[in-house]
Amino acid sequence: MLHVSxxxxxxxxxxxxxxxxxxxxxxxxxxxxxxxTALRPRPLSRAAIRFKTAARAARGxxxxxxxxxxxxxxxxxxxxxxxxxxxxxxxxxxAYNEEARLEHTLQEALxxxxxxxxxxxxxxxxxxxxxxxxxxxxxxxxxxxxxHRFTDRYGSDKVRVLVLPQNSGKGAAVxxxxxxxxxxxxxxxDADGATRFRDFEYLERKMHDIADWDxxxxxxxxxxxxxxxxxxxxxxxxxxxxxxxxxxxxxQIHALRDWRRKLLGKGFNLxxxxxxxxxxxxxxxxxxxxxxxxxxxTLFLTQHLKRWxxxxxxLYLAQRLRIxxxxxxxxxxxxxxxxxxxxxxxxxxALDILRMRVRYFLGVWRIEYA
Length: 370
Hints:
By secondary structure, the chain is an alpha/beta fold. The protein is 42% helix and 14% strand. The chain has helices spanning 15-39, 46-59, 102-117, 143-154, 170-178, 200-210, 237-245, 259-274, 293-302, 310-320, 342-362; strands at 64-66, 75-77, 87-95, 130-137, 159-164, 183-188, 220-224, 255-256, 289-292, 325-329, 332-333. The strands form 3 sheets. It has a 7-stranded mixed β-sheet, with helices on both faces. A two-stranded antiparallel sheet has the order 1-2. A two-stranded parallel sheet has the order 8-11. Helix 8 (259-274) runs parallel beside helix 11 (342-362). The protein is globular. The termini are far apart.
């Protein structure tokens, strides 16, 4: 019987060959980095930013809102964010099939806003004037009719409804609302009312603490379920004690969440940090965020992601542009009726974040300075 034996031997790479491979890999990586850097836009001068802003304002928004006092057509044209602010606060609420939950949210928000409009003890020297913009993201239920009832009650100068022709995602709805807002400050809030609306004052106070109003890119304040009421996740224990001892002006923050969502949220935060490149923000996904008008112009004009990971993109851009960012604790309660399937949403967000990083790195997506 014939026996055949096969002897396999491994010959290592010669040292010079291995060294050449390493050098080539390093050169490719450096080349990609230099190419991406070359493709990234350089910051514009203040004069160039002002010129582009004026040009965009002159073009108008091309969008309309229901106005019961506007004659036969009952519609008026939205302004654009590229025009000067004409109210103190704009509240943008995206809504998709929210007829069951939106009414309570609007009632709470408008009660607070009406009270503040007659209060002279606020945090800003500006008079408290406001608008609330509901952005209907292609709803198939009675969301638009419900929102129009609030326009009839409060007037179209205070409550405006922007109707998108089809469902495009929460990120797209928020972007469209921001780009037609009139406020010096712009607040993003969820339609389910998960965040107590009067906690806006925590964000407002922090905004006036950190914003340099002469800075061309403003500031951003993020509502958070994970930080102290003092508004800084790295605040010392002595600072927290001093804050809470000052007459009880800053109450304890509560965030009530299902334990499974908490666990998945922690995992998502790691994903945001290491894949998304967003650092030192513990809660990127709370739907309660405040933007100075200057920061909103550039961030929302640049924003590409249309669905759930758009918050990560906004914060990634803000950190890249060195816009001041603060994180402030808010009261938050999980509201029944969510349409989000958490595991599927996290997978989709991870893919969106990866796509975002690759496209900005390669220069496919560019920052649009406003």
